[in-house]
Amino acid sequence: MTTTISLETVEARASYGIGRQMGDQLARNGFEDVELAAVIAGLEDAFTGQDLKITAEQIQEAFTEISRRMREAEEARTAALVEEGKQFLIDNGTRDEVVVLDSGLQYEVLEAGDAEAEKATRESTVKTHYHGTFINGQVFDSSYQRGQPIEFPVTGVIKGWTEALQLMNPGAKWRLYVPYHLAYGEQGSPGGIPPYSTLIFDVELIEVR
């Protein structure tokens, strides 16, 4: 429902801003099928000091039920994501060119690098280029796209990387298939990686120091 209003006064604009902020918060943290008319009715009643249209117990019961539905929906999404990643790794691990380690990490050698050069240890700092995607091919991060390699301690990254970097020859390029427990785990990453995500990285080990 769209209502035409005048926003010519300072008070109207500030009032609209309050409503917009509340709406943005509700859109981010609300639930499916929020009824805006009921939200507005509750806001109006609170602002004008009206009595509740339903009991406090009914409101609490509704909150509890919505929380239960949201929790169940999230659990279902999580289970589906875990199963999708698990099946992907099972299928991927059957390919001849893929090496499967005891940890669950999988890798594919794209370029072998210098077998005579000293490999990285847990105490090393490395310079790499990388390209990271979800298993559906969507890119979530790429130093190649930024045009700038990155340096970091071997132990300063996800577990899957720390393991792989110590196996790679300098100059090598590997494709890593990283199960969620060796990536960002059950929490995911604020940078846009959901919980329980299996990830794929093309990693080029440029330098070891």
Automatic annotation (TrEMBL):
GO molecular function: peptidyl-prolyl cis-trans isomerase activity
Coiled coil: none
Entry's transmembrane regions: none
Record's catalysed reaction(s): [protein]-peptidylproline (omega=180) = [protein]-peptidylproline (omega=0)
PROSITE patterns linked: FKBP_PPIASE
UniProt EC number: 5.2.1.8
PANTHER family xrefs: FKBP-TYPE 22 KDA PEPTIDYL-PROLYL CIS-TRANS ISOMERASE, FKBP-TYPE PEPTIDYL-PROLYL CIS-TRANS ISOMERASE FKPA
Name under which the protein is recorded: Peptidyl-prolyl cis-trans isomerase
Species: Nitrincola nitratireducens
Upper taxonomic lineage: Bacteria, Pseudomonadati, Pseudomonadota, Gammaproteobacteria, Oceanospirillales
